[in-house]
């Protein structure tokens, strides 16, 4: 049995692993690599395959959760010949469907914008072809009809001698840790994949659970060398900043937030502030059609949420609906709120300020000293979010330079990832004497190195930091 590390190796995005049995290949996640480098100086190669393997030889795909850095290249897998099923939870299937169709719609707009005979258009089309991952709705259609949904905590037999169990990971609605059991030459080997590990007491989501003891563990390290700094609850942190920004003065609060997961956590917290903590009436604009679709899915799967959310929904009839909440659909509606003169809150994607409608909201308000931009999660290198957190005095958005007069704030109570303490707690449910190897993934290299040293303090001396495309015999 071989384990191939095909993505998220010494970097955060692009999660993808292959477990190769004697005559059966299982892919675990198939995510978009947002850190992929492309040599645009070289000619496009239309015949070149997208993956470093023959997709037609993959037998099964297991999906830990819906976020695009875990699911985003699934349509490409089918385009290149994969014909197998996708195992995941029901909420993951529903969230992945809307995310992939959203990506396909964006790809279509890019292609249409690059059509034409001008040199500029031809160069744009050439660059799109070099990037390669331009799947469209048909490719998504091929993917979503192959979802097979299984429940948490129930062992499911994949083929003879191979079983899978999903355990709640808490990171996102339906997110799972995965444990595979493989009977090979009379010996059962257990391989655990952490997926993305959530944090305890997070709005809406259940707490992550420990997985049984395994022989091999693949563990994410997004916050491998960081501890969440905020000691306040989400309600306390968000409520204080809203009052400082929109009540004590007539300002506006912009919250860049991922459409799936983060937006719902913020909306739920706002609803709690209104219903239970007397927050004054302030207009809240949620500027993400994808965020609205995701919110409906969260409401659909109430049974997957934590007890606090279930109780709130029972008492108030809704998790997210409150007075003065406005969902913006069209770009025209989005542009119009720059003329709204009253204090307001704008929630818009993307969370790292790397594309999406939030860029325009930042551009419209970055020079306004009455505006606060609130970062509520991790921002990768190269994003506008990381530049703002770094204290940049000016910011270039598209082709224009802006002075940063707005207040830049950061809280991490809405970060959906376990911090170093949470990761250590997850790993320490394993027996150091039984565990043959821990493979670290899904994190910046320094984060992995620091986490490795921390694990060694607890007696885990078999920690490996795989390189991309590195293979291990299990």
From TrEMBL:
Tree of life domain: Bacteria
Keyword Hydrolase: yes
Example GO molecular function: hydrolase activity
Keywords, in A-Z order: Hydrolase
Domain Beta-Casp, first and last residues per copy: 263-388
CDD domains noted in UniProt: TTHA0252-CPSF-like_MBL-fold (cd16295)
Xref: Pfam families: Beta-Casp, Lactamase_B_6, RMMBL
Segments forming domain Metallo-beta-lactamase: 13-258
InterPro entries: Beta_Casp (IPR022712), MBL (IPR050698), Metallo-B-lactamas (IPR001279), RibonucZ/Hydroxyglut_hydro (IPR036866), RMMBL (IPR011108)
Protein known as: MBL fold metallo-hydrolase
Originating species: Sandaracinomonas limnophila
Upper lineage: Bacteria, Pseudomonadati, Bacteroidota, Cytophagia, Cytophagales
């Amino acid at each position: 049995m071989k384990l191939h590390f095909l993505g998220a190796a010494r970097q955060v995005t692009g999660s993808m692993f292959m477990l190769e049995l004697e005559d059966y290949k299982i892919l675990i996640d198939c995510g978009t690599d947002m850190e992929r480098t492309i040599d645009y100086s070289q000619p496009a190669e239309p015949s070149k395959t997208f993956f470093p393997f023959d997709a037609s030889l993959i037998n099964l795909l297991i999906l830990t959760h819906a976020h695009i850095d875990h699911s985003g290249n699934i349509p490409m897998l089918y385009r290149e010949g994969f014909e197998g099923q996708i195992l995941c939870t029901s909420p993951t299937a529903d969230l992945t469907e809307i995310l992939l169709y959203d990506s396909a719609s964006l790809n279509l707009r890019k292609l249409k914008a690059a059509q034409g005979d001008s040199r500029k258009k031809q160069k744009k089309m050439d660059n799109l072809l070099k990037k390669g991952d331009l799947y469209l709705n048909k490719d998504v259609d091929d993917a979503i009809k192959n979802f097979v949904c299984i429940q948490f905590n129930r062992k499911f037999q994949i083929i003879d001698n191979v079983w899978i169990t999903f355990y709640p990971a808490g990171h996102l609605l339906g997110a799972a840790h995965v444990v595979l059991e493989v009977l090979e030459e009379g010996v059962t080997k257990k391989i655990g994949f952490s997926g993305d590990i959530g944090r305890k007491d997070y709005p809406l989501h259940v707490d992550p659970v420990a997985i049984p003891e395994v022989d091999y563990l693949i563990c994410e390290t997004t916050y491998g060398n960081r501890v969440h700094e905020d000691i306040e609850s989400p309600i306390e942190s968000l409520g204080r900043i809203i009052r400082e920004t929109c009540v004590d003065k007539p300002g506006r609060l912009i919250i860049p937030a991922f459409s799936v997961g983060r937006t719902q956590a913020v909306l739920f917290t706002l609803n709690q502030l209104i219903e239970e903590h007397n927050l004054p009436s302030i207009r809240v604009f949620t500027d993400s059609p994808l965020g609205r679709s995701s919110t409906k899915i969260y409401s659909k799967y109430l049974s997957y949420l934590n007890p606090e959310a279930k109780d709130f929904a029972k008492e108030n009839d809704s998790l997210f609906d409150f007075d003065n909440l406005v969902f913006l659909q069209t770009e025209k509606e989005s542009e119009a709120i720059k003329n709204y003169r009253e204090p307001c809150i704008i929630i818009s994607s993307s969370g790292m300020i790397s594309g999406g409608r939030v860029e325009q909201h930042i551009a419209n308000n970055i020079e306004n000293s009455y505006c606060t931009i609130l970062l509520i999660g991790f921002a990768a290198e190269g994003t506008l979010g990381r530049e703002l957190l770094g204290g940049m005095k000016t910011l270039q958005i598209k082709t224009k330079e802006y002075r940063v007069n707005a207040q830049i704030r950061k809280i991490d109570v809405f970060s959906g990832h376990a911090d170093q303490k949470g990761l250590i707690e997850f790993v320490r449910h394993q027996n150091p004497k039984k565990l043959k190897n821990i493979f670290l993934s899904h994190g910046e290299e320094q984060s992995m190195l620091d986490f490795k040293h921390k694990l060694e303090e607890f007696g885990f001396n078999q920690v490996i930091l795989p390189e991309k495309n590195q293979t291990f015999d299990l």
